[in-house]
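The passage that follows is intended for readers who have already worked through the single-chain material. We present the inputs for a multi-component assembly, then the predicted structure in tokenized form, and finally a short commentary. You are encouraged to pause after the input and sketch how you expect the pieces to fit together before reading on.
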Amino acid sequence: MLSRTADHLFWMSRYMERAENTARMLDVNYQTSLLPQSADRAEQGWAGVLGISELTAAFGEKHGEVNDRNVMQFMVRDAGNPSSIVSCLQAARENARAVRGTLTTELFETTNQTWLEFNRMLQGNGFERDPAALFEWVKFRSHLSRGVAVGTMLQDESLHFIRIGTFLERADNTARLLDVKFQDLAGDYFGTWADDSAPEVDFYHWSAILRSVSGFEIYRKVYRNVIRPDKVAELLILRPDMPRSLAACMNEVVHNLDLVANEQSTETRRRAGRLRSDLQFGRIDEILATGLHAFLTQFLDRVNDIGAGISRDFLVPA
Amino acid sequence: MKPFFDEMQTGAGTVRPHYSGFDRWLQAQAPAVMAARRDEAEMIFRRVGITFAVYGAKDEDGAGTERLIPFDVIPRIIPSDEWARMQQGLTQRVTALNHFLHDVYHGQEILKAGVVPAEQVLNNTQFRPEMMGVDLPGQIYSHISGIDIVRAAQPDGSGTYYVLEDNLRVPSGVSYMLENRKMMMRLFPELFAQHRVAPVAHYPDLLLETLREVAPASVNEPTVVVLTPGMYNSAYFEHAFLAQQMGVELVEGQDLFVKDNFVYMRTTQGPRRVDVVYRRVDDDFLDPTAFRPDSTLGCAGLLDVYRKGNISLCNAIGTGVADDKSIYPYVPKMIAFYLGEKPILENVPTYLCRESDDLKHVLAHLDELVVKEVHGAGGYGMLVGPASTQAEIAEFRAQLLARPSNYIAQPTLALSTTPTFVENGIAPRHIDLRPFVLSGKSVQMVPGGLTRVALKEGSLVVNSSQGGGTKDTWVLEA
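Having made your guess, compare it with the prediction:
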């Protein structure tokens, strides 16, 4: 298939996935902000949202105070912010439009309809009245896109590049979320709480993280235990059966990379495989011992590097 | 009173036989139902993304450079005998035009014979000297031709079909023809059960067949692509649609490159050779090393490969010299010259402002005539005399006097009307017809074409860029 076509497919699914993850993150912060907490704590939560997306400076140029209203406006409907949901959905739709002939009619219409509907929902103050409903809607439109893609597309390169985009983006987003949420606790998390002497952790803090990745019920099912940060980290990093974990994402990336391999892609495939192995054979106590922040920072660099490799080998060849 | 011709009703108000079944159905429909169907159609078109871009326009929400072409739910119906004759006329006309193109780029017999003035062709900006002596497969230049046809009322109340214009460069609109039919079948399935409407959905098949037939002779299994200027082009939907329907790649200039006298596209599995390009990019932008150097829409070196016969372009480079409005008046003579036949379809009588007698006549009758720029398209740069103010006419007169050879003039035709569903109910509106004629090993077309309708009361301008809409076009099988 055309390299440019693969490029559009890759970014179409990345932007849809990003819109979903932004909605998830905003939703969890919004829900948390309804709990009784200090003003500092609330502001810290919203500042974290900006930090995850590396938008603290861009936000500062437009808004003064970091509060729920300002951050949600900025992250949902500000078309000047390239990571806002409106920008992501538009980018997903523009990419889909550029290759609409490659997509099934259902997939194009789903993506197009999402964009048209979202704009209609932003008119009036429905969003401000009930932000959670809008976040839920975005999440479900993303589920729908993914389902329509898997359920209607021929299982050829087109679908493989769509899947690579989805899981590379999800790996990135889950890692960022973990990084920021663990830093919310004072200092880096070195696993000193991994034993039974763990201080009382905020149940609501950890359950919020889990809920943001649809992982609360999964956690209970897998660990049948109270919520402990090290187990949360393990679930979201190493469990291959947890669909939003780093390990699960990298499994999908590697699998789909194998299906599209070409003469130039050997090195990119090697790096992706190596990252997958690190997750496959890694242990959470080792990761925590070296420092979670350091681990996640390195993970993000490696994901970024694989993305650049895919671009060079397939999407924008010289 | 000026004569007029309505496709559905005679002057006396009786319904023509080929509309009688539709009329019975229409009488039984509540206006509210028709309005609901029209709204449904609009919603579906928007969801499907059948939109066109308007240059320079922007809605308040910023997303609005994409517009829908208004779709009218009342079909235009053509009886089978009229279509049969029109089809013969179209085949004849397009065949002659292809002969003409081959001739002007080879022996130029028609110029030597003085049938078409040589300077009209050779000094035309659309004449491409680069094409001299280049041999094309089947000697076909215009593989896809859009021939605009109108029906005008005669003093006795009958109607005559005229060819208004030939479009031999990159004629568009065929996707609307196909989508309009799909929409009508979805909205009013019962109408199709009651009528024998000739199908059109096989157009992409015929197109692909045509494109494969004109591949370079040495290629067995040609790779066909559609070349688009990109998603911001006004006809992008159509480009994507046709590529998808034919199952071929939709490429942009940046996807193509030339190496060792062949054209390749960049794919995820390395370079792949391209044999036939259905290009929806104008000549000027096709190759920055040969034509406009600032073009980013084409592929550097393409012309060279083309001249060596290693790639086929559809349509060929240089077809513009045959659809220019200054060449149009000579088409009936071409038919006689190349085919030895009488034209089946008539031309609209045309005054060439470059000739002083004609110019004198035009200047004296500006308020009655339609004056058009020779190279204009899309309804821009024209004067519709009867619909213009004195000031507009005066302004146009100055332009005309400054560059008379830039203009032709035609009598304002009383374009035929069909009933159309507008704001205050059903009312007659003026229409035209664009059949799409395919030329490969043979000349083929699907029955009918795209009917465009001027939605403003009294307006004669059907172009979508000027507020025109479209209708489904039915050819009834005998």
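Commentary: Residues 186-200 of chain A have pLDDT under 50 and may be disordered. The longest helix of chain A spans residues 3-33. How closely did your sketch match?
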